[in-house]
Amino acid sequence: xxxxxxxxxxxxxxxxxxxxxxxxxxxxxxxxxxxxxxxxxxxxxxxxxxxxxxxxxxxxxxxxxxxxxxxxxxxxxxxxxxxxxxxxxxxxxxxxxxxxxxxxxxxxxxxxxxxxxxxxxxxxxxxxxxxxxxxxxxxxxxxxxxxxxxxxxxxxxxxxxxxxxxxxxxxxxxxxxxxxxxxxxxxxxxxxxxxxxxxxxxxxxxxxxxxxxxxxxxxxxxxxxxxxxxxxxxxxxxxxxxxxxxxx
Length: 248
Prior knowledge:
Elements: E1 3-6, E2 16-20, H1 27-38, E3 42-48, E4 57-58, E5 65-66, E6 69-74, E7 79-84, H2 93-106, E8 110-118, E9 130-135, H3 138-144, E10 154-157, H4 158-170, E11 174-181, H5 188-203, H6 210-214, H7 216-232, E12 240-243
Parallel strand pairs: 2-7, 2-8, 8-11
Antiparallel strand pairs: 1-3, 3-6, 4-5, 6-7, 9-11, 10-12
Organism: Halobacterium jilantaiense
Pfam family, one: PAC2
Protein name: Proteasome assembly chaperone (PAC2) family protein
């Protein structure tokens, strides 16, 4: 049975959450890790369910062990972040989505779900496209911030797709943001585009992104093994968006 276990007290008023499950280009993870690190957000909860590997995560310059999937908070910015260092297994994605969606609903959280759209034909210097879909007031949020509609029919898969599906089924407020990204390697440029174009405007938080470009090579090196793991993972484990024509 999945659960969200509070590890510290926090007081937020209808916060926005940025979701960072691993997927294509690791754009969601890179963007969310950047937000957590930029604001030194506090670890406030862990997510525990059958789909999450029982591993211990540690960081440099610390003796602490942290859960592989966790929630961070920034009270001053009324912001939450779902940070993950592991993929969610196919067998646990439904339980995972049900648990988190229930927790978001009970805490009046508006989630921003993040996905990469594999772009095989991206040209150097061309800005990756960003578009969004939503449920509840999420569609109004997208319209108010001039986020484009999808250019074609498609599907969001993996655990993020399950989360988007649950929010829509229950009529809850949620936004799903999709950015074109490199299908093979970590893509800090796409993550930056996602932050600048959608995450920062929607949250109303000024998020510095210059160092995402300055540290692009370092970030790619850090995330390369996880990116390779996500390429090898089944579609049910890897968060990504795909045009519907790929299934026809």
